[in-house]
Design brief:
The protein has 329 residues and is mainly beta. Helix content is 5%, strand content 43%. The chain contains one helix and 25 strands. Strands 8, 9, 10, 12, 14 and 21 form a six-stranded mixed beta sheet that branches. Strands 1, 2, 5 and 6 form a four-stranded mixed beta sheet that branches. Strand 23 (284-294) and strand 24 form a beta hairpin. The chain is elongated, with a radius of gyration of 28 Å.
């Protein structure tokens, strides 16, 4: 009999929990630029807007609740609305205004209007961070086809951004096997911002309206012979095996987040003699950094600037030093 009474009490408790009152939230999803309703847009809990942009979320537990509109993206959200759900009540008029992602397309060509295939095109965003105007490199990417054409989807609307064409340098080892004869080497392509600028400060900003498909975003890139730099990496004055990185000082920015826009090989080290040979460089000023990491943090670091003209550069020394502990208050 005691067991039956216990089971009955548990059943009553479960039913009470199941029948706990819930609340609901409703409103519309609107285009922030035009004010028009956005139909068939995902909201929360597999709910989508109807033909007039209306949505209704039901069965919500009472208390704080956030509506996060993402669309096809994961982060960042297009809109966030924080509301308080009340038991047995519907909270109406919770409208969310968003800008739909857009699309950018165009071609990458050299100074002779010949297409450049297999080249990455990236969106560079700008925002104030740490008290300064800085750039971040994760705003979007695409690669040109053999006709030099690219299409970039899911571009954030309403934000001023830069387009950058930059070839990634991936070295298989510290010593490039590029031929000594300049005429036998592959050409180098200058990292270029839209439409034909060699720095972020001189580039043209691109801002899309909600859902806009911007065509004709062509980038003209300077093609030049590929030059090489021979260098020795030194740690506390002696040749050492160190990681190294190459940066175009004009194209990249000291205010880049999380690092420079133009980067050389990652995870590549020199030999014990510290010798490296870096090729595929165009005329301009580059920064060669030597470092050793412990996780993501450099334990030793050093850098030097190198100017490329119309010939290779030899006998460059890059001095890295160990950190020095300074005591004080």
């Amino acid at each position: 009999m005691k067991l039956l009474v216990t089971l009955a009490i548990a059943t009553i408790t479960l039913l009470a929990q199941t029948d706990a009152p819930t609340g609901s939230v409703s409103g519309r999803v609107l285009d922030a630029d035009s004010g028009d309703p956005i139909p068939d847009f995902p909201v929360e809990n597999h709910v989508r807007t109807d033909a007039k942009g209306y949505y209704k979320l039901v069965g919500l537990k009472p208390g704080p609740f956030e509506i996060r509109l993402r669309g096809e993206r994961v982060w960042p959200e297009l809109a966030i609305a924080a509301v308080i759900v009340e038991a047995g009540k519907e909270l109406t008029g919770v409208d969310l205004r968003i800008r739909l992602d857009g699309e950018i397309s165009g071609r990458v060509v050299d100074q002779n209007k010949d297409p450049i295939g297999g080249m990455p095109v990236r969106l560079i965003g700008r925002e104030y961070y740490g008290g300064a105007l800085r750039y971040f490199t994760d705003a979007g990417t695409a690669t040109t086809n053999d006709r030099g054409e690219y299409v970039m989807h899911n571009v954030r609307a309403g934000r001023a951004m830069l387009l950058l064409m930059e070839k990634r340098r991936v070295y298989e080892g510290p010593l490039s096997d590029a031929p000594a004869d300049l005429q036998l080497r592959k050409p180098a392509y200058r990292a270029t911002y839209y439409p034909n600028a060699d720095s972020a400060e001189a580039a043209t900003l691109v801002t899309l309206s909600s859902g806009e498909h911007r065509q004709g975003m062509d980038i003209q890139v300077l093609r030049s012979p590929g030059y090489c730099v021979d260098a020795t990496l030194l740690l506390d004055g002696a040749p050492a095996s160190l990681d190294f990185k190459v940066t175009d000082e004009l194209t990249s920015s000291a205010n880049m987040i999380p690092g420079s826009a133009s980067s050389g090989p990652t995870g590549i080290s020199s030999g014990a003699d510290g010798k490296i040979r870096i090729c595929d460089l165009y005329p301009g000023q580059f920064r060669i950094a030597a470092l050793r990491r412990s996780g993501a943090v450099p334990t030793v670091f050093g850098a030097t600037s190198v100017t490329i003209g119309k010939e290779d550069v030899h006998n460059v020394r890059v001095l890295a030093v160990s950190p020095v502990t300074i005591q004080g208050e």
